[in-house]
Design a protein that fits this description.
Layout: H1 20-48, H2 56-64, E1 70-72, H3 80-85, E2 88-97, E3 103-114, E4 125-126, H4 131-142, E5 146-147, E6 159-167, H5 186-198, H6 201-210, H7 216-228, H8 232-244, H9 251-267, H10 271-279, H11 283-289, H12 295-309, H13 317-334, H14 339-365
Antiparallel strand pairs: 1-5, 2-3, 2-6, 3-4
Helix pairs in contact: 1-2, 1-14, 2-13, 5-6, 6-7, 7-8, 8-9, 9-10, 9-12, 10-12, 11-12, 12-13, 12-14, 13-14
Length: 366
């Protein structure tokens, strides 16, 4: 199990003896220091760069500081015209918040719309049908929200964070395995079901390869067939291609693929690939709601993903820590993972929090 070395931080760290109360104080100070650093970097990026700016660290530190808490919210009204036509959407916005917690402004970053499950977004379009209506509804509601006031020490950097509003209609879910392949022709579905029931993996592989360019689902079945026949290297290659070509949006299919390939790339030390595949996945919501892939396998993929976040070229420390903390909260409530996995989670949380405490201790002595 990898642990983040102290040299990852660009801070001069030193050891100190502190009481539990001191640790709480130093933890807060360390989080504030790191938040201000990341918030400043993010603001410089969004003001000077046309490239996407990494927001996960700002969001992570705001969450750890309890500065994302919504004090008052307003309901988002579903645009009636889109609702009648059966359109769903996802709207991502950048919210600027005043020192007192009121919303200063809401800027739409993108909107994607279409029919069906917002997680799958099959044949959806960015800026698609009714996106103007979805954006107006989202902005109108978010502008009325109120958040916790910002502490004085943090007020020198404007508080901003991204928020995603998901518009979905009843029945638009891809959690059922069969629903995930409804975009296929009925004859194709029947063929897949027949070969799966017969466990004729060789024939299913041949059928999937023949149709592999027609739909991402065939790439999944080509990978799964190889996996079930014991050809793990080929299966991992195909599962990776499936995820890289939109497979992460598929509920059970994407999670099974991620639960197989993430441990593989982690063991190879390929943190970049682990983060690339993990960040696009639905691992965390699946841990809460999924019922086909085992909780232990999903948790293991999240542990490896969160660990690799710390070892990529630009480490995401806050984002990793929030992933571990959420996983620990889930386990406390529902269980479902091994003792070794719980130990790994606790060790990584202790490791990360210890380093943040040292940063806070340094600032207190400065």
């Amino acid at each position: 199990m990898k642990f983040l070395s102290l040299t990852i931080f660009v801070f001069a760290l030193f050891t100190s003896c502190a009481s539990a109360n001191d640790d709480d104080l130093f933890m807060r100070k360390g989080l504030e220091t790191l938040y201000l650093q990341e918030a400043e970097k993010y603001l410089v990026c969004i003001e000077s760069s046309a490239d996407p700016c990494q927001f996960s660290e700002v969001e992570g530190y705001l969450e750890l500081l309890d500065m994302k808490k919504i004090e008052r919210s307003a309901p988002v009204k579903y645009p009636r015209s889109a609702q009648i036509k059966g359109y769903a959407a996802v709207v991502e916005s950048l919210i600027s918040i005043n020192e007192d917690g009121s919303v200063e402004s809401v800027k739409v970053l993108y909107c994607s719309s279409g029919k069906g499950d917002p997680r799958l977004q099959f044949k959806w379009s960015e800026g698609g049908q009714y996106c103007g209506n979805f954006e107006k509804a989202s902005v109108k509601a978010l502008a009325e929200w109120e958040f916790k006031p910002l502490p004085e020490r943090l007020q020198r950097i404007p508080r901003k964070f991204q928020h995603r509003v998901v518009f979905s209609l009843p029945g638009q879910s891809s959690q059922d395995i069969n629903i995930q392949i409804t975009e296929l022709k009925s004859s194709q579905v029947r063929k897949i079901q027949k070969l799966t029931k017969a466990k004729d993996w060789s024939e299913l592989e041949a059928y999937a390869l023949k149709n592999i360019d027609k739909n991402p689902v065939f790439r999944y079945y080509a990978a799964d067939s190889a996996w079930l026949m014991g050809n793990q290297a080929l299966a991992i290659e195909r599962f990776t291609e499936f995820l890289e070509n939109g497979g992460n949006s598929y509920w059970h299919f994407g999670i099974k693929a991620a639960a197989i390939v993430i441990p593989h790339y982690y063991e190879l030390g390929n943190d970049k690939k682990v983060v690339e595949l993990g960040k696009a996945s639905l691992l965390e919501p699946y841990l809460r709601e999924g019922n086909v892939v085992s909780k232990s396998a999903v948790a293991q993929a999240i542990i490896f993903y969160a660990t690799s976040l710390m070892f990529q070229e630009n480490p995401e420390i806050a984002y990793a820590l929030t992933r571990f903390k959420r996983l620990k909260q889930y386990v406390r409530r529902y269980g479902g993972i091994t003792g070794d996995q719980m130990r790994m989670i606790n060790e990584q949380i202790t490791n990360l929090e210890g380093q943040i405490i040292k940063i806070g201790s340094r600032d207190s002595d400065a």
